Amino acid sequence: QVQVVESGGGLVQPGGSLRLSCAASGFTFSFYVMNWYRQAPGKERELVATISTDGDKTNYEDSVKGRFTISRDNAKKTAYLQMNSLKPEDTAVYYCNAQRDALPGIVYWGKGTLVTVSS
Q: What does 57-117 look like in DSSP terms, one character per residue?
């Protein structure tokens, strides 16, 4: 059974940090590009960060560059999103997405974790 489960969300003050985790099971994790998306209230879902299957390549949405870091541990079948210097505009539900490398039609989504940045 395929599972993608996010954790680590919560309420944090502006300028604070959170680390999100994405635990995967039921598929060969190391074959999948891992992505973090987010969806703020009233807005479309957007891609925040991407990491290649071996972790060597990463990409970030412009507004999070220098503040967020995506990483993965293939042995633990887990991806992470370290978020620093958080801003109120980072408030959103954050979703983990696993996309089969070279087979873009095979995609698994988690149910999301809420991040609220507020004083």
A: -EEE-GGGTTTEEEEEETTTTEEEEEE-S--GGG-EEEEEEEEETT-TT-EEE---EEEEE
**Which pLDDT value is given to residue 115?**
98
Mean pLDDT by 10 residues, the chain (119 residues): 97 98 97 97 96 97 98 98 98 97 89 97
Q: What is the pLDDT of residue 83?
A: 98
What letter does residue 24 receive in the DSSP assignment?
E
52: nearest Cα among 83, 77, 81, 31: 31
Q: Which two tokens stand for residue 67?
A: 């503040």
Three-state DSSP class for 31? helix
CA distance 45 to 73: 25
Non-local (6+) Cβ contacts of 70 within 8 A are 34, 36, 49, 50, 51, 58, 60, 79, 80, 81, 82
The DSSP secondary-structure symbol of 29 reads G
